[in-house]
Amino acid sequence: MCLKDGIPTRSILSQRINIESNLCPRCNTEPETITHALLTCEESKKVWFLSSLNVRTEPFNQKPIKDWIEYWLLPHNQDPDSEERIRCFPYVACLMWSIWNARNTLLFDNIPQPVQTIHNNALFWANQKEITLEPATNPQNSLPQIWTKPNLGWIKANTDGAWNPNTGTGSMGYIFRDWKGAMISAASIFNDSLISAKETEIRAIWYAIKRARELKIKHLIIESDAKEVIDGLKQNLFVGDWSTDAYLKDIGDWRSSFDQLIFSFRNRNCNETAHVIAQWASQNYASMFWSTAPVWLGPYLDKDANS
């Protein structure tokens, strides 16, 4: 729509019908072209600069919107960041749409939207694919077979549990990574009194959400290969037996700490890094927390980053 002048900015409308002014209704200083409305109006510039992209749009002032689209989508052999920009474009498109919606809400309903609300709306739309990927309607062999980075502005936590039915011991593991695939935090936690594999999986998710609250993460994806547990959480079933009920109730209560919290099932291939982290505690009969990756974890992180 942008490239075909399909957005009814005042500058475009003034060429087709009689309107009082072609000036931007927000700043009242410049004609409201598509570029001005979405990128270079003072209100729009604040949104882009304060977003996770942290981009300045002034260089596109007086340029057609086509230049902006090409900046994000066309590969440049001499630019090492061009591949990353292409990957970010879904969020860029959603942020443009969110800015336009905020403009219309102000113009027609006289309701200003805070910058954070505009960001949150864009993040929600950009991650609809995470929300709509339901295991019930997508067989496991149609799910991604490799770990994937979260979208811009999101953090992904992979969790796993390991349980030994002969000894009743087990361990829980989690790892947080950002949209670049960089590790933020990880832990392997040993416990010598567990009654089921399901309990270890629920506890692993509990530990991850607890850590996310400590890190003040607001947009979080929890990935696990425990399908039954994830299905229950997605259906808001926060009731369990005597061994899991308290943990599930905490998870239900803690949802309000996040702007968005998504529970997602993935197969073991996508969750291998969390699996080996969980196994570490069982093998060493100890717990460990990391803010930087231990050397032995490097090959797994490299494999995920290059997948």
Description of the molecule:
Helices cover 43% and strands 14% of the residues. By secondary structure, it is α/β, with parallel strands linked by helices. The chain folds into 2 domains: 10-127, no CATH class; 155-306, Ribonuclease H-like superfamily/Ribonuclease H (Nucleotidyltransferase, domain 5, 2-Layer Sandwich). A 6-stranded mixed beta sheet has the order 5-4-1-2-3-6, sandwiched between helices. The longest helix has 28 residues, at 82-109. The chain is elongated, with a radius of gyration of 23 Å. The two termini are 33 Å apart. One of its GO terms (molecular function) is nucleic acid binding. It comes from Macleaya cordata. Residues 158-281 form the RNase H type-1 domain. Pfam families: RVT_3, zf-RVT.
Features:
6-stranded mixed beta sheet; RNA-DNA hybrid ribonuclease activity; Nucleotidyltransferase, domain 5; 14% strand; 307 residues; 12 helices; 2 domains; alpha/beta
